[in-house]
Amino acid sequence: MAGIYIHIPFCKQKCSYCNFHFSTNLSRKSEMLQAINREIELRASEIQKYTIETIYFGGGTPSVLTVDEMHSLISTLGGTVSLDQVVEVTMECNPDDLNPDYLQALLNETMVDRISIGIQSFHDPHLKMMNRAHNGAEAGQSLEQIFNAGFEKVTADLIFGLPDNDLSIWQSNLARLVEFPVSHISCYGLTIEPNTALKHVIDKGLIDMPDESAARDQFYMTQEFLASKGYEQYEISNFCLPGQYAVHNTNYWKQVPYIGIGPSAHSYNGRERRFNVANNSQYLSAINRGIDFWETELLSESDRYNEWILTGLRTKWGIDGSDAQQYSLNIREEFDDAVKKSIHAGWIEESDGALCLTKSGKVLADYVISSFFYV
Ligand SMILES: C[S@@+](CC[C@H](N)C(=O)[O-])C[C@H]1O[C@@H](n2cnc3c(N)ncnc32)[C@H](O)[C@@H]1O
Ligand code: SF4
Fold it and tell me: Which of 137, 148, 62, 135 shows the shortest CA–CA distance to 99?
């Protein structure tokens, strides 16, 4: 089994917090699609080693593509490998790109069956600060249109821990979102990323640094509120109605291989990681000239151990402690020590033979997980 990730490296405008790879110059969009189609063909033998279970269009902003363009990418994939076993085809969309005709055509004419919509907030001053291309009312309309078109698998992203975000605004965001029958919700704590407009204005003192304890309170509220609405927190940032897990992402956390296509996309085959160049011009020129546009990194034993901890502990399934036996003595000792300390501190508990984060462990997830790392 494997998943395929396709990165669409364009956005209409630059959100102030975001440092994912994208360009706002859409003039080379068709050329890029040809290059992405070409990469799929170039990697046919690698892709054909796997049964493909999921396809994920991420970005950037995949919804800058027309339905025909989406169709052409999926057709190239279908001409390369059987898509008969595919159970989920997700597309990240921005509210300002959506309209009823577009959504209907996506559902009827392509294999896309799951929409991931970037809401971030319904609160206009926050959307403005984030330089989003939509307001709160438009965010709500886009959700309405997605359900009216007939999509059943819908996930929405929200960001908490913003500067100047009090608990009541955050609660109203959650409450507004669950007015819609979204089967899945991702709530991300804001990270102030380098080289972003938000970092720049915070450094200049124009906006206050977000308050960590306010962000923690918002995270606690998210856990309580979404649980009361029937959503299960199955990964630190991800919540779903019973059984509605994101298959593509869950496979990623379970270390199932994936093939990443497009500029900046990563691939993983259990032994090695591959990183495509995160630069549109360099990617295009390398594909056109037939030269390499990626680097690979063979995973060391400690890399594999750290990834096992990082991906496993974030989920409700946790990690099976006996899997530590495959690592050498130094790593096992580090692991046993971290388990003891975290259980003692109340951050980790054993349940059904698996080690999982407790409720308080989830709040400190980054800290607890890094205490297990072997460096
Ligand atoms: C790859 S982005 C693209 C999604 C889509 N283009 C959009 O903007 O809705 C996926 C998600 O990452 C989250 N994200 C991006 N930058 C972030 C940051 N600095 N801190 C927290 N969440 C972030 C946002 O919630 C976003 O929806
Ligand atoms: S959040 Fe989405 S739309 Fe905004 S810059 Fe990042 S990828 Fe583009």
Answer: 148
